[in-house]
Protein backbone atom coordinates (compact mmCIF):
# COMPACT_ATOMS: atom_id res chain seq x y z
CA UNK A 1 0.00 0.00 0.00
CA UNK A 2 2.69 2.48 1.03
CA UNK A 3 4.18 2.52 -2.46
CA UNK A 4 0.92 3.32 -4.21
CA UNK A 5 -0.17 6.85 -4.92
CA UNK A 6 -0.29 9.38 -7.66
CA UNK A 7 1.09 8.22 -10.99
CA UNK A 8 1.34 9.53 -14.55
CA UNK A 9 -2.11 8.12 -15.39
CA UNK A 10 -4.01 9.76 -12.55
CA UNK A 11 -1.96 12.89 -12.02
CA UNK A 12 -3.81 14.96 -14.64
CA UNK A 13 -4.82 18.38 -13.34
CA UNK A 14 -8.52 18.83 -12.65
CA UNK A 15 -10.00 21.48 -14.92
CA UNK A 16 -13.56 22.24 -16.04
CA UNK A 17 -12.33 23.09 -19.54
CA UNK A 18 -12.39 19.45 -20.66
CA UNK A 19 -16.18 19.29 -20.16
CA UNK A 20 -16.70 21.02 -23.49
CA UNK A 21 -14.91 18.41 -25.59
CA UNK A 22 -16.90 15.57 -24.01
CA UNK A 23 -20.21 17.38 -24.46
CA UNK A 24 -19.44 18.20 -28.10
CA UNK A 25 -18.94 14.45 -28.65
CA UNK A 26 -22.16 13.44 -26.91
CA UNK A 27 -24.49 16.35 -27.71
CA UNK A 28 -22.75 17.84 -30.78
CA UNK A 29 -25.99 18.41 -32.68
CA UNK A 30 -28.05 19.61 -29.69
CA UNK A 31 -28.64 23.29 -28.85
CA UNK A 32 -26.04 24.78 -26.53
CA UNK A 33 -26.67 28.54 -26.56
CA UNK A 34 -29.82 30.37 -27.68
CA UNK A 35 -30.17 34.14 -28.05
CA UNK A 36 -33.17 35.53 -29.95
CA UNK A 37 -33.12 33.52 -33.22
CA UNK A 38 -29.41 32.64 -32.95
CA UNK A 39 -29.05 28.98 -31.95
CA UNK A 40 -25.64 27.31 -31.59
CA UNK A 41 -25.07 23.57 -31.16
CA UNK A 42 -22.52 22.10 -28.75
CA UNK A 43 -20.25 21.24 -31.72
CA UNK A 44 -20.39 24.89 -32.83
CA UNK A 45 -19.80 26.18 -29.29
CA UNK A 46 -16.72 24.00 -28.97
CA UNK A 47 -15.34 25.29 -32.28
CA UNK A 48 -16.11 28.91 -31.37
CA UNK A 49 -14.34 28.54 -28.01
CA UNK A 50 -11.28 26.98 -29.65
CA UNK A 51 -11.23 29.77 -32.24
CA UNK A 52 -11.40 32.31 -29.40
CA UNK A 53 -8.50 30.68 -27.53
CA UNK A 54 -6.42 30.45 -30.71
CA UNK A 55 -7.26 34.07 -31.67
CA UNK A 56 -6.14 35.28 -28.23
CA UNK A 57 -2.83 33.41 -28.54
CA UNK A 58 -2.26 34.98 -31.96
CA UNK A 59 -2.66 38.41 -30.31
CA UNK A 60 0.16 37.55 -27.91
CA UNK A 61 -1.95 36.59 -24.88
CA UNK A 62 -0.14 33.96 -22.84
CA UNK A 63 -0.36 31.98 -19.60
CA UNK A 64 -1.57 33.99 -16.58
CA UNK A 65 -2.33 37.15 -18.53
CA UNK A 66 -5.61 38.67 -17.38
CA UNK A 67 -8.32 39.02 -20.03
CA UNK A 68 -11.41 40.97 -18.95
CA UNK A 69 -14.93 41.01 -20.27
CA UNK A 70 -17.60 43.62 -19.75
CA UNK A 71 -20.83 42.10 -21.04
CA UNK A 72 -24.32 40.95 -20.05
CA UNK A 73 -25.59 37.38 -20.58
CA UNK A 74 -25.02 37.14 -24.34
CA UNK A 75 -23.50 34.14 -26.21
CA UNK A 76 -19.99 35.66 -26.29
CA UNK A 77 -20.06 35.92 -22.50
CA UNK A 78 -20.81 32.20 -22.28
CA UNK A 79 -17.99 31.38 -24.72
CA UNK A 80 -15.48 33.44 -22.72
CA UNK A 81 -15.81 30.98 -19.81
CA UNK A 82 -14.10 28.33 -21.92
CA UNK A 83 -12.27 30.24 -24.67
CA UNK A 84 -10.31 32.64 -22.44
CA UNK A 85 -8.81 30.06 -20.03
CA UNK A 86 -8.26 27.70 -23.00
CA UNK A 87 -5.67 30.26 -24.15
CA UNK A 88 -3.92 29.92 -20.77
CA UNK A 89 -5.19 33.34 -19.67
CA UNK A 90 -7.14 34.21 -16.51
CA UNK A 91 -10.76 35.27 -17.10
CA UNK A 92 -11.93 38.42 -15.34
CA UNK A 93 -15.64 39.19 -15.75
CA UNK A 94 -16.64 42.74 -14.85
CA UNK A 95 -20.06 43.89 -13.73
CA UNK A 96 -21.62 46.15 -16.40
CA UNK A 97 -23.53 48.09 -13.73
CA UNK A 98 -20.39 49.47 -12.10
CA UNK A 99 -19.43 53.08 -12.67
CA UNK A 100 -16.52 54.16 -14.85
CA UNK A 101 -14.33 55.02 -11.85
CA UNK A 102 -14.69 51.54 -10.31
CA UNK A 103 -14.14 49.80 -13.65
CA UNK A 104 -11.02 51.87 -14.16
CA UNK A 105 -9.71 50.84 -10.73
CA UNK A 106 -10.47 47.14 -11.38
CA UNK A 107 -8.79 47.15 -14.80
CA UNK A 108 -5.67 48.74 -13.38
CA UNK A 109 -5.61 46.52 -10.29
CA UNK A 110 -6.00 43.36 -12.37
CA UNK A 111 -3.34 44.45 -14.88
CA UNK A 112 -5.76 43.41 -17.62
CA UNK A 113 -4.13 43.00 -21.06
CA UNK A 114 -7.30 42.91 -23.14
CA UNK A 115 -10.98 43.73 -22.62
CA UNK A 116 -13.86 42.27 -24.60
CA UNK A 117 -16.66 44.77 -24.37
CA UNK A 118 -20.35 44.52 -25.22
CA UNK A 119 -21.18 47.19 -27.78
CA UNK A 120 -23.62 48.92 -25.41
CA UNK A 121 -20.97 49.17 -22.66
CA UNK A 122 -18.35 50.67 -24.98
CA UNK A 123 -18.96 54.32 -23.91
CA UNK A 124 -18.68 53.21 -20.24
CA UNK A 125 -15.39 51.42 -20.95
CA UNK A 126 -14.02 54.45 -22.81
CA UNK A 127 -14.88 56.62 -19.78
CA UNK A 128 -13.11 54.11 -17.52
CA UNK A 129 -9.98 54.04 -19.68
CA UNK A 130 -9.91 57.85 -19.86
CA UNK A 131 -9.33 57.80 -16.09
CA UNK A 132 -6.09 55.80 -16.47
CA UNK A 133 -2.98 57.79 -15.52
CA UNK A 134 -0.72 58.35 -18.54
CA UNK A 135 1.90 56.05 -16.97
CA UNK A 136 -0.44 53.03 -17.15
CA UNK A 137 -0.79 51.23 -20.49
CA UNK A 138 -4.47 50.70 -21.29
CA UNK A 139 -5.64 47.21 -22.30
CA UNK A 140 -6.51 46.37 -25.90
CA UNK A 141 -10.27 46.70 -26.53
CA UNK A 142 -12.28 44.28 -28.67
CA UNK A 143 -15.96 45.14 -29.07
CA UNK A 144 -18.66 42.46 -29.14
CA UNK A 145 -21.31 43.53 -31.64
CA UNK A 146 -24.92 42.47 -31.26
CA UNK A 147 -27.01 42.06 -34.42
CA UNK A 148 -30.13 41.70 -32.26
CA UNK A 149 -29.82 45.13 -30.64
CA UNK A 150 -31.16 48.14 -32.53
CA UNK A 151 -29.39 51.51 -32.26
CA UNK A 152 -25.98 50.36 -31.12
CA UNK A 153 -23.21 52.99 -31.05
CA UNK A 154 -20.83 53.10 -34.01
CA UNK A 155 -17.15 52.41 -33.40
CA UNK A 156 -13.87 52.50 -35.26
CA UNK A 157 -12.31 49.22 -34.12
CA UNK A 158 -11.23 47.02 -37.01
CA UNK A 159 -10.96 43.89 -34.85
CA UNK A 160 -14.28 42.76 -33.36
CA UNK A 161 -15.11 39.60 -31.42
CA UNK A 162 -16.54 37.83 -34.48
CA UNK A 163 -13.54 38.83 -36.62
CA UNK A 164 -11.20 37.42 -33.97
CA UNK A 165 -13.13 34.15 -34.09
CA UNK A 166 -12.85 34.09 -37.89
CA UNK A 167 -9.07 34.45 -37.52
CA UNK A 168 -8.89 31.63 -34.96
CA UNK A 169 -8.30 27.93 -35.55
CA UNK A 170 -11.23 25.62 -34.69
CA UNK A 171 -8.80 22.68 -34.30
CA UNK A 172 -6.59 24.58 -31.83
CA UNK A 173 -4.86 22.44 -29.17
CA UNK A 174 -5.96 24.38 -26.13
CA UNK A 175 -3.45 25.32 -23.45
CA UNK A 176 -3.90 22.90 -20.57
CA UNK A 177 -3.00 24.00 -17.04
CA UNK A 178 0.42 22.79 -15.91
CA UNK A 179 -1.02 22.27 -12.45
CA UNK A 180 -4.60 22.18 -11.21
CA UNK A 181 -3.62 25.02 -8.88
CA UNK A 182 -2.94 27.33 -11.84
CA UNK A 183 -5.09 30.48 -11.68
CA UNK A 184 -8.08 30.44 -14.00
CA UNK A 185 -10.50 33.10 -12.73
CA UNK A 186 -10.24 36.57 -11.23
CA UNK A 187 -13.53 37.87 -9.80
CA UNK A 188 -14.14 41.03 -7.83
CA UNK A 189 -16.50 40.87 -4.84
CA UNK A 190 -19.72 42.87 -4.96
CA UNK A 191 -18.42 45.67 -2.73
CA UNK A 192 -21.35 45.39 -0.33
CA UNK A 193 -19.27 46.05 2.77
CA UNK A 194 -16.09 47.64 1.42
CA UNK A 195 -14.19 48.21 -1.82
CA UNK A 196 -14.34 45.17 -4.16
CA UNK A 197 -11.56 42.62 -3.59
CA UNK A 198 -9.95 40.58 -6.41
CA UNK A 199 -10.57 36.89 -5.74
CA UNK A 200 -8.40 34.36 -7.58
CA UNK A 201 -9.58 30.80 -8.24
CA UNK A 202 -7.68 27.90 -9.76
CA UNK A 203 -8.80 25.19 -12.21
CA UNK A 204 -9.20 22.66 -9.40
CA UNK A 205 -11.47 24.92 -7.33
CA UNK A 206 -13.70 25.68 -10.31
CA UNK A 207 -13.89 21.99 -11.25
CA UNK A 208 -14.93 21.08 -7.71
CA UNK A 209 -17.56 23.80 -7.30
CA UNK A 210 -19.08 23.03 -10.72
CA UNK A 211 -19.55 19.31 -10.11
CA UNK A 212 -20.63 19.99 -6.53
CA UNK A 213 -23.31 22.50 -7.53
CA UNK A 214 -24.77 20.17 -10.16
CA UNK A 215 -24.96 17.32 -7.66
CA UNK A 216 -26.35 19.42 -4.86
CA UNK A 217 -29.11 20.92 -7.04
CA UNK A 218 -29.70 17.53 -8.79
CA UNK A 219 -29.49 19.06 -12.26
CA UNK A 220 -30.48 16.48 -14.89
CA UNK A 221 -28.96 16.06 -18.37
CA UNK A 222 -30.15 18.39 -21.12
CA UNK A 223 -31.85 20.84 -18.77
CA UNK A 224 -33.01 24.14 -20.24
CA UNK A 225 -31.33 26.88 -18.23
CA UNK A 226 -32.43 30.51 -18.33
CA UNK A 227 -29.69 33.04 -17.63
CA UNK A 228 -31.36 35.33 -15.09
CA UNK A 229 -28.25 35.41 -12.91
CA UNK A 230 -25.48 37.57 -14.42
CA UNK A 231 -22.48 35.51 -15.52
CA UNK A 232 -20.37 38.43 -14.28
CA UNK A 233 -21.55 37.67 -10.73
CA UNK A 234 -19.18 34.96 -9.49
CA UNK A 235 -19.39 33.32 -12.94
CA UNK A 236 -23.10 32.68 -12.52
CA UNK A 237 -22.27 30.40 -9.54
CA UNK A 238 -20.36 28.01 -11.89
CA UNK A 239 -23.29 27.13 -14.15
CA UNK A 240 -21.58 28.17 -17.43
CA UNK A 241 -19.35 25.11 -16.91
CA UNK A 242 -22.17 23.13 -15.29
CA UNK A 243 -24.45 23.41 -18.32
CA UNK A 244 -21.63 22.07 -20.46
CA UNK A 245 -21.28 19.00 -18.22
CA UNK A 246 -24.98 18.21 -18.56
CA UNK A 247 -25.35 19.11 -22.26
CA UNK A 248 -27.99 21.65 -21.26
CA UNK A 249 -29.31 24.56 -23.30
CA UNK A 250 -28.31 28.06 -22.22
CA UNK A 251 -31.05 30.60 -22.90
CA UNK A 252 -29.38 34.02 -22.90
CA UNK A 253 -31.21 37.14 -21.79
CA UNK A 254 -29.62 40.56 -22.11
CA UNK A 255 -32.05 42.17 -19.64
CA UNK A 256 -33.73 40.55 -16.66
CA UNK A 257 -37.26 41.96 -16.72
CA UNK A 258 -40.32 40.14 -15.43
CA UNK A 259 -42.19 40.01 -18.77
CA UNK A 260 -39.10 38.79 -20.66
CA UNK A 261 -38.44 36.11 -18.03
CA UNK A 262 -42.01 34.74 -18.12
CA UNK A 263 -41.96 34.84 -21.97
CA UNK A 264 -38.65 32.97 -22.15
CA UNK A 265 -39.79 30.34 -19.63
CA UNK A 266 -42.83 29.65 -21.81
CA UNK A 267 -41.17 29.82 -25.20
CA UNK A 268 -38.18 27.60 -24.37
CA UNK A 269 -39.82 25.36 -21.72
CA UNK A 270 -37.20 26.44 -19.22
CA UNK A 271 -36.51 23.92 -16.43
CA UNK A 272 -33.91 25.78 -14.32
CA UNK A 273 -32.89 29.30 -13.39
CA UNK A 274 -30.91 31.04 -10.67
CA UNK A 275 -31.36 34.43 -9.08
CA UNK A 276 -30.69 36.48 -5.99
CA UNK A 277 -33.75 37.00 -3.74
CA UNK A 278 -34.29 40.34 -5.49
CA UNK A 279 -35.14 38.40 -8.68
CA UNK A 280 -37.59 36.16 -6.79
CA UNK A 281 -39.16 39.27 -5.31
CA UNK A 282 -39.54 40.73 -8.82
CA UNK A 283 -41.12 37.52 -10.19
CA UNK A 284 -43.48 37.05 -7.26
CA UNK A 285 -44.62 40.70 -7.34
CA UNK A 286 -45.29 40.66 -11.10
CA UNK A 287 -48.89 41.70 -11.81
CA UNK A 288 -51.12 38.87 -13.07
CA UNK A 289 -51.62 40.65 -16.41
CA UNK A 290 -47.86 40.27 -17.15
CA UNK A 291 -47.30 36.81 -15.63
CA UNK A 292 -47.74 33.63 -17.63
CA UNK A 293 -48.52 30.20 -16.19
CA UNK A 294 -45.45 27.93 -16.04
CA UNK A 295 -45.30 25.35 -18.84
CA UNK A 296 -43.91 22.65 -16.50
CA UNK A 297 -41.83 22.29 -13.34
CA UNK A 298 -39.28 25.12 -13.00
CA UNK A 299 -36.46 24.79 -10.47
CA UNK A 300 -35.16 28.07 -9.04
CA UNK A 301 -31.93 28.32 -7.08
CA UNK A 302 -31.57 31.41 -4.93
CA UNK A 303 -28.51 32.70 -3.06
CA UNK A 304 -26.44 35.86 -2.67
CA UNK A 305 -28.52 37.47 0.10
CA UNK A 306 -30.95 36.18 2.72
CA UNK A 307 -34.25 35.24 1.06
CA UNK A 308 -37.10 36.31 3.37
CA UNK A 309 -39.52 33.42 4.09
CA UNK A 310 -42.40 35.52 2.72
CA UNK A 311 -40.63 35.91 -0.65
CA UNK A 312 -39.93 32.15 -0.83
CA UNK A 313 -43.56 31.47 0.00
CA UNK A 314 -44.88 33.84 -2.70
CA UNK A 315 -42.50 32.44 -5.35
CA UNK A 316 -43.48 28.84 -4.65
CA UNK A 317 -47.15 29.85 -4.72
CA UNK A 318 -46.61 30.68 -8.44
CA UNK A 319 -45.50 27.08 -9.05
CA UNK A 320 -41.69 27.48 -8.92
CA UNK A 321 -39.72 24.98 -6.80
CA UNK A 322 -37.16 27.01 -4.90
CA UNK A 323 -33.84 25.71 -3.55
CA UNK A 324 -31.74 27.91 -1.32
CA UNK A 325 -27.94 28.04 -1.12
CA UNK A 326 -25.20 30.22 0.29
CA UNK A 327 -21.82 31.11 -1.10
CA UNK A 328 -19.34 33.89 -1.64
CA UNK A 329 -17.18 35.13 -4.49
CA UNK A 330 -14.35 33.66 -2.39
CA UNK A 331 -15.83 30.14 -2.77
CA UNK A 332 -16.67 30.45 -6.49
CA UNK A 333 -20.24 29.36 -5.85
CA UNK A 334 -22.42 27.63 -3.31
CA UNK A 335 -20.91 25.85 -0.33
CA UNK A 336 -23.89 25.63 2.00
CA UNK A 337 -27.40 24.67 0.94
CA UNK A 338 -30.72 24.02 2.56
CA UNK A 339 -30.84 20.27 1.81
CA UNK A 340 -34.54 19.49 1.59
CA UNK A 341 -36.20 16.51 3.24
CA UNK A 342 -39.30 14.84 1.76
CA UNK A 343 -41.14 14.83 5.07
CA UNK A 344 -41.02 18.63 5.18
CA UNK A 345 -43.37 18.74 2.18
CA UNK A 346 -46.21 17.74 4.51
CA UNK A 347 -45.77 20.90 6.61
CA UNK A 348 -47.90 24.04 6.08
CA UNK A 349 -46.54 26.37 3.37
CA UNK A 350 -45.44 29.07 5.81
CA UNK A 351 -43.49 26.54 7.92
CA UNK A 352 -41.88 25.12 4.76
CA UNK A 353 -40.80 28.65 3.76
CA UNK A 354 -39.38 29.27 7.24
CA UNK A 355 -37.29 26.08 7.08
CA UNK A 356 -36.18 26.88 3.53
CA UNK A 357 -34.98 30.35 4.47
CA UNK A 358 -32.23 28.68 6.57
CA UNK A 359 -28.94 28.44 4.66
CA UNK A 360 -28.43 24.76 5.56
CA UNK A 361 -25.62 22.23 5.57
CA UNK A 362 -22.33 21.93 3.69
CA UNK A 363 -22.57 20.93 0.04
CA UNK A 364 -21.14 17.44 -0.64
CA UNK A 365 -17.63 18.49 -1.64
CA UNK A 366 -17.01 20.92 1.24
CA UNK A 367 -14.76 19.35 3.86
CA UNK A 368 -16.36 21.01 6.85
CA UNK A 369 -18.23 24.09 8.01
CA UNK A 370 -18.92 25.48 11.47
CA UNK A 371 -20.20 28.45 13.42
CA UNK A 372 -17.56 29.51 15.94
CA UNK A 373 -17.20 31.95 18.78
CA UNK A 374 -14.91 34.80 17.71
CA UNK A 375 -12.94 34.90 20.96
CA UNK A 376 -12.61 31.23 21.92
CA UNK A 377 -12.59 29.75 18.40
CA UNK A 378 -14.89 27.00 19.75
CA UNK A 379 -18.10 25.83 18.05
CA UNK A 380 -21.16 27.67 19.34
CA UNK A 381 -23.97 25.71 21.00
CA UNK A 382 -26.31 23.95 18.56
CA UNK A 383 -29.30 25.81 19.97
CA UNK A 384 -30.34 27.96 17.01
CA UNK A 385 -29.70 31.04 19.16
CA UNK A 386 -26.04 31.50 20.01
CA UNK A 387 -24.44 33.60 17.30
CA UNK A 388 -20.94 33.12 15.92
CA UNK A 389 -18.96 33.50 12.69
CA UNK A 390 -19.51 31.04 9.85
CA UNK A 391 -16.24 29.37 8.82
CA UNK A 392 -15.55 27.00 5.94
CA UNK A 393 -12.98 24.55 4.68
CA UNK A 394 -13.05 22.93 1.26
CA UNK A 395 -11.50 22.60 -2.18
CA UNK A 396 -13.27 25.57 -3.75
CA UNK A 397 -12.03 28.19 -1.29
CA UNK A 398 -10.08 30.83 -3.28
CA UNK A 399 -6.31 30.87 -3.69
CA UNK A 400 -6.39 34.36 -2.16
CA UNK A 401 -6.98 38.04 -2.91
CA UNK A 402 -4.90 39.45 -5.76
CA UNK A 403 -2.08 41.72 -4.53
CA UNK A 404 -3.55 41.80 -1.01
CA UNK A 405 -1.63 39.56 1.35
CA UNK A 406 -3.04 41.25 4.44
CA UNK A 407 -6.67 40.64 3.48
CA UNK A 408 -5.83 37.07 2.41
CA UNK A 409 -4.25 36.34 5.79
CA UNK A 410 -7.22 37.84 7.61
CA UNK A 411 -9.64 35.63 5.67
CA UNK A 412 -7.67 32.37 5.50
CA UNK A 413 -6.13 31.83 8.91
CA UNK A 414 -3.54 29.52 10.39
CA UNK A 415 -6.28 27.50 12.11
CA UNK A 416 -7.31 26.23 8.67
CA UNK A 417 -10.62 28.07 8.39
CA UNK A 418 -11.82 30.54 5.80
CA UNK A 419 -13.61 33.27 7.77
CA UNK A 420 -16.74 34.40 5.93
CA UNK A 421 -17.54 37.56 7.92
CA UNK A 422 -21.12 36.26 8.23
CA UNK A 423 -22.77 35.79 11.59
CA UNK A 424 -25.03 32.80 12.07
CA UNK A 425 -26.41 30.17 14.42
CA UNK A 426 -26.31 26.38 14.34
CA UNK A 427 -29.69 24.72 14.80
CA UNK A 428 -30.02 21.48 16.78
CA UNK A 429 -30.55 19.57 13.48
CA UNK A 430 -27.13 20.75 12.16
CA UNK A 431 -28.52 23.42 9.79
CA UNK A 432 -26.81 26.81 9.76
CA UNK A 433 -28.84 30.00 9.60
CA UNK A 434 -27.31 33.37 8.79
CA UNK A 435 -28.36 36.10 11.13
CA UNK A 436 -26.32 38.89 9.68
CA UNK A 437 -23.09 40.06 8.18
CA UNK A 438 -20.84 40.90 11.11
CA UNK A 439 -20.93 44.58 10.17
CA UNK A 440 -24.74 44.62 10.11
CA UNK A 441 -25.52 43.23 13.57
CA UNK A 442 -27.38 45.80 15.72
CA UNK A 443 -26.35 45.95 19.37
CA UNK A 444 -29.14 47.41 21.47
CA UNK A 445 -28.71 47.59 25.24
CA UNK A 446 -26.13 44.80 25.03
CA UNK A 447 -28.46 42.48 23.04
CA UNK A 448 -27.44 41.41 19.54
CA UNK A 449 -30.27 41.94 17.09
CA UNK A 450 -30.22 40.19 13.74
CA UNK A 451 -31.29 42.70 11.10
CA UNK A 452 -32.18 39.74 8.84
CA UNK A 453 -34.71 38.45 11.38
CA UNK A 454 -36.44 41.82 11.66
CA UNK A 455 -36.46 42.17 7.87
CA UNK A 456 -38.10 38.77 7.42
CA UNK A 457 -41.03 39.93 9.59
CA UNK A 458 -41.29 43.17 7.62
CA UNK A 459 -41.37 41.23 4.32
CA UNK A 460 -44.41 39.37 5.68
CA UNK A 461 -46.40 42.65 5.75
CA UNK A 462 -48.79 42.54 2.77
CA UNK A 463 -47.86 46.05 1.58
CA UNK A 464 -44.09 45.89 1.99
CA UNK A 465 -42.06 45.45 -1.19
CA UNK A 466 -38.52 45.65 0.23
CA UNK A 467 -37.12 46.18 3.70
CA UNK A 468 -33.71 46.75 5.25
CA UNK A 469 -32.97 47.26 8.91
CA UNK A 470 -29.86 49.04 10.20
CA UNK A 471 -28.58 50.46 13.46
CA UNK A 472 -29.52 54.02 14.45
CA UNK A 473 -27.55 55.60 17.29
CA UNK A 474 -29.67 55.85 20.44
CA UNK A 475 -28.92 57.92 23.54
CA UNK A 476 -30.15 55.23 25.91
CA UNK A 477 -29.70 51.86 24.14
CA UNK A 478 -26.54 52.63 22.18
CA UNK A 479 -28.26 51.49 18.98
CA UNK A 480 -31.84 50.69 17.99
CA UNK A 481 -33.21 49.11 14.79
CA UNK A 482 -34.19 51.55 12.07
CA UNK A 483 -36.25 50.11 9.21
CA UNK A 484 -36.13 51.43 5.64
CA UNK A 485 -39.12 50.21 3.69
CA UNK A 486 -40.42 50.51 0.14
CA UNK A 487 -44.08 49.73 -0.54
CA UNK A 488 -45.60 47.62 -3.29
CA UNK A 489 -46.68 49.39 -6.44
CA UNK A 490 -50.31 50.41 -6.54
CA UNK A 491 -50.57 51.00 -2.79
CA UNK A 492 -52.52 54.27 -2.76
CA UNK A 493 -51.57 56.93 -0.24
CA UNK A 494 -54.87 56.48 1.64
CA UNK A 495 -54.12 52.78 2.14
CA UNK A 496 -50.40 53.22 2.83
CA UNK A 497 -49.29 51.96 6.21
CA UNK A 498 -47.86 54.58 8.58
CA UNK A 499 -44.75 54.28 10.73
CA UNK A 500 -47.08 53.41 13.62
CA UNK A 501 -48.77 50.61 11.62
CA UNK A 502 -45.44 49.01 10.73
CA UNK A 503 -44.23 49.20 14.32
CA UNK A 504 -47.50 47.66 15.53
CA UNK A 505 -47.10 44.80 12.95
CA UNK A 506 -43.62 44.09 14.33
CA UNK A 507 -44.65 44.31 17.99
CA UNK A 508 -47.19 41.51 17.42
CA UNK A 509 -44.54 39.24 15.94
CA UNK A 510 -41.20 39.75 17.70
CA UNK A 511 -39.71 40.52 21.11
CA UNK A 512 -40.08 44.23 21.81
CA UNK A 513 -36.35 44.95 22.00
CA UNK A 514 -36.07 43.91 18.32
CA UNK A 515 -38.90 46.14 17.06
CA UNK A 516 -37.71 49.04 14.86
CA UNK A 517 -38.02 52.32 16.71
CA UNK A 518 -37.84 54.28 13.46
CA UNK A 519 -39.43 53.48 10.09
CA UNK A 520 -38.44 55.42 6.97
CA UNK A 521 -40.46 54.98 3.76
CA UNK A 522 -38.56 55.20 0.47
CA UNK A 523 -39.63 54.79 -3.15
CA UNK A 524 -36.68 52.42 -3.68
CA UNK A 525 -33.83 51.10 -1.52
CA UNK A 526 -30.24 51.70 -2.71
CA UNK A 527 -28.63 48.57 -4.19
CA UNK A 528 -25.18 47.40 -5.25
CA UNK A 529 -24.56 46.50 -8.85
CA UNK A 530 -25.36 42.86 -7.99
CA UNK A 531 -28.75 43.82 -6.57
CA UNK A 532 -27.87 43.68 -2.86
CA UNK A 533 -29.28 46.38 -0.61
CA UNK A 534 -26.51 48.79 0.36
CA UNK A 535 -26.87 48.76 4.12
CA UNK A 536 -23.88 51.05 4.65
CA UNK A 537 -25.66 53.80 2.70
CA UNK A 538 -28.76 53.36 4.87
CA UNK A 539 -26.64 53.16 8.02
CA UNK A 540 -25.13 56.54 7.13
CA UNK A 541 -28.62 57.96 6.60
CA UNK A 542 -29.74 56.58 9.98
CA UNK A 543 -26.66 58.11 11.58
CA UNK A 544 -27.39 61.48 9.97
CA UNK A 545 -30.84 61.44 11.60
CA UNK A 546 -28.96 61.79 14.88
CA UNK A 547 -29.45 59.79 18.06
CA UNK A 548 -32.99 58.74 18.86
CA UNK A 549 -34.12 60.48 22.05
CA UNK A 550 -35.75 59.25 25.28
CA UNK A 551 -38.96 58.18 23.53
CA UNK A 552 -37.08 55.17 22.24
CA UNK A 553 -37.21 53.51 25.65
CA UNK A 554 -39.48 50.48 25.57
N1 LIG B 1 -28.21 32.45 1.04
C1 LIG B 1 -27.68 33.52 1.59
N2 LIG B 1 -28.24 34.07 2.68
C2 LIG B 1 -27.71 35.16 3.27
N3 LIG B 1 -26.64 35.83 2.81
C3 LIG B 1 -26.04 35.33 1.72
C4 LIG B 1 -26.52 34.16 1.06
N4 LIG B 1 -25.68 33.90 0.03
C5 LIG B 1 -24.74 34.87 0.05
N5 LIG B 1 -24.95 35.73 1.05
C6 LIG B 1 -24.18 36.95 1.39
O1 LIG B 1 -23.42 37.33 0.27
C7 LIG B 1 -22.03 37.41 0.64
C8 LIG B 1 -21.16 37.09 -0.54
O2 LIG B 1 -21.40 38.04 -1.55
P1 LIG B 1 -20.33 38.49 -2.63
O3 LIG B 1 -19.22 37.56 -2.67
O4 LIG B 1 -21.12 38.76 -3.86
O5 LIG B 1 -19.75 39.86 -2.21
P2 LIG B 1 -20.11 40.79 -1.03
O6 LIG B 1 -19.70 40.05 0.22
O7 LIG B 1 -21.56 41.18 -1.16
O8 LIG B 1 -19.19 42.04 -1.26
P3 LIG B 1 -17.96 42.57 -0.37
O9 LIG B 1 -17.23 41.38 0.20
O10 LIG B 1 -17.13 43.33 -1.36
O11 LIG B 1 -18.61 43.42 0.68
C9 LIG B 1 -21.91 36.44 1.79
O12 LIG B 1 -20.79 36.74 2.61
C10 LIG B 1 -23.23 36.66 2.51
O13 LIG B 1 -23.18 37.79 3.37
Give an account of the 3D structure.
The protein is α/β, with parallel strands linked by helices and 554 residues long. The longest helix has 17 residues, at 42-58. It folds into 2 domains: 16-409 and 419-426, ANL, N-terminal domain (Rossmann fold, 3-Layer(aba) Sandwich), CATH 3.40.50; 442-552, 2-Layer Sandwich (GMP Synthetase, Chain A, domain 3). Helix 2 (42-58) crosses helix 3 (75-83). It has a 9-stranded mixed β-sheet, with helices on both faces. 50% of the residues are buried. It is built from 17 helices and 25 strands. Residues 550-554 have low confidence and may be disordered. It is 29% helix and 24% strand. The protein binds adenosine-5'-triphosphate.
Note the main attributes of this structure:
single chain, 554 residues, alpha/beta, Rossmann fold, GMP Synthetase, Chain A, domain 3, 2 domains, nine-stranded mixed beta sheet, four-stranded parallel beta sheet, 17 helices, disordered C terminus, binds adenosine-5'-triphosphate, ligase
Compact summary:
The C terminus is likely disordered. This protein has 554 residues and is α/β, with parallel strands linked by helices.
Amino acid sequence: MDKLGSNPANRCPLTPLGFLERTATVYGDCPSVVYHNTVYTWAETQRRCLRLASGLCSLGISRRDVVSVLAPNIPAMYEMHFGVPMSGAVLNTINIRLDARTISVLLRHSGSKLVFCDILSLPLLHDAISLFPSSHNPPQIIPIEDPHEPNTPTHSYSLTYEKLLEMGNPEFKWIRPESEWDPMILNYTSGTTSAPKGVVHCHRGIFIVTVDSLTDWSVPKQSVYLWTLPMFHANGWSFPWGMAVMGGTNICLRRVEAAAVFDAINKHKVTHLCGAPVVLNMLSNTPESVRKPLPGPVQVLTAGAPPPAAVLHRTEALGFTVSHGYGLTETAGLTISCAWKGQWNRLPASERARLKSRQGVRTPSMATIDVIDGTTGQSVKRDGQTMGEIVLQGGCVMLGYLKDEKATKAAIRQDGWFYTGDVGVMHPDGYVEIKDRSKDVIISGGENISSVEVESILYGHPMVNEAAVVARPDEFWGETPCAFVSLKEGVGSSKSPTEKDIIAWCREKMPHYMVPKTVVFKAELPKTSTGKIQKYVLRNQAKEMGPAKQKSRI
